[in-house]
Specification:
Blueprint lengths: L1 E3 L4 E7 L7 H11 L8 E7 L6 H9 L19 E5 L6 E7 L13 H13 L2 E7 L11 H14 L5 E8 L6 H18 L11 H4 E8 L7 H22 L21 H14 L8 H24 L1
Parallel strand pairs: 3-5, 3-6, 6-7, 7-8
Antiparallel strand pairs: 1-2, 2-4, 4-5
């Protein structure tokens, strides 16, 4: 467990890159932050999104956490492995935040997407607020902006878990000249289309997106700019943005707050056990262990060829 005595921030790896739940680590962490004393007055936030998109950096600015950040001068590679958990500094009520391993990373490759689906579903099932980090230029693209991932996760979530009204906050990174009021409708329409297209179990045939999720959209200027003057301006914009967004996390569970209408809250004393059980259910669900597109196509084609041969053999008989 990492602990910073200067600001009271501590963090621990909740789930490692192989999917092993760190039971000892979370028990020690929760005891250190005295979560059990909070009763129902606590919140859980998390962040997901592409690898090297600045997720850990954003969390550290928002919540004064100490998640490890990528060193851009050493190249763009995986920084966060598995899922890390930290307590936000200076936020009331007590707020825990999870930093998820980035999606679409070269280290796992295109054939190993099971963990990113599992971790995304875990975040949606455990968190009151999920920040979804995305590039501005990905809005409107069919295979970008985590669309395939969200589609899979939405489908499985409806079968495994009951609605708890999680807030999905889409954070648009490196915003261009296109005004947010023009970007937001496109993004909201895309999310609605994903929800409408997902096969639903009988119990949720007519369930609206709003039963499971609140959707929020915010935009953030680029954190990395080439010219020093522009960099300073961007930093000022970032500080203004972060200050405003940080304020929204204060009293997040109060009526009207970001997670003011959440449901099925687990008492703080049972958070560790609940998280372990949710991860166990997710790990045992084979629908998330789906093959990559190329493997799936090859499998389907092999089945087609086998069926054609069997049909031809039957006719010759």
């Amino acid at each position: 467990m990492n602990y910073n005595n200067d600001d009271g921030c501590c963090s621990t790896q909740l789930i490692d890159g192989d999917g092993e739940f760190n039971v000892t680590g979370i028990e020690k962490f929760l005891k250190g932050v005295r979560l059990a004393e909070c009763g129902l007055s606590y919140a859980v936030a998390s962040i997901m999104g592409p690898q090297s998109s600045g997720k850990s950096t954003l969390l550290n600015h928002l919540f004064r956490t100490n998640f490890r950040e990528m060193d851009a001068f050493k190249g763009r590679s995986q920084t966060t492995k598995g899922i890390w958990l930290a307590r936000c500094v200076g936020i009331e009520p007590c707020t825990l935040v999870m930093d998820l391993e980035g999606t679409d990373g070269r280290e796992r490759g295109e054939d190993d997407t099971a963990f990113e689906k599992q971790s995304a579903l875990f975040a949606l099932a455990v968190s009151d607020i999920v920040l979804i980090n995305m590039w501005c230029h990905d809005i409107g693209r069919e295979q970008a902006a985590n669309k395939p991932l969200l589609k899979t996760v939405f489908q499985v979530m409806m079968r495994l878990f009951s609605p708890r009204k999680t807030t999905l906050m889409f954070v648009i990174r490196d915003k261009t000249r296109t005004p947010l009021e023009n970007l937001e409708p496109v993004l909201r329409e895309d999310i609605q289309k994903i929800w409408d297209s997902v096969p639903k179990p009988q119990a949720h045939t007519d369930t609206l997106l709003s039963e499971f999720f609140n959707v929020e959209v915010v935009a953030l200027s680029s954190y990395e700019e080439k010219e020093e003057q522009f960099k300073e301006q961007a930093y000022l914009l970032l500080e203004l943005f972060v200050s405003d967004l940080r304020q929204r996390f204060f009293q997040s569970i109060a009526p009207g707050g970001l997670a003011g209408d959440r449901r099925g809250v687990v008492p703080a004393s049972g958070f560790s056990f609940s998280a372990q059980q949710i991860w166990k259910v997710i790990k045992e669900n084979k629908d998330l262990d789906l093959p990559a597109h190329k493997v799936l196509v090859a499998t389907v084609r092999c089945e087609e060829i086998a069926n054609e041969r069997c049909s031809a053999f039957s006719q010759n008989q």
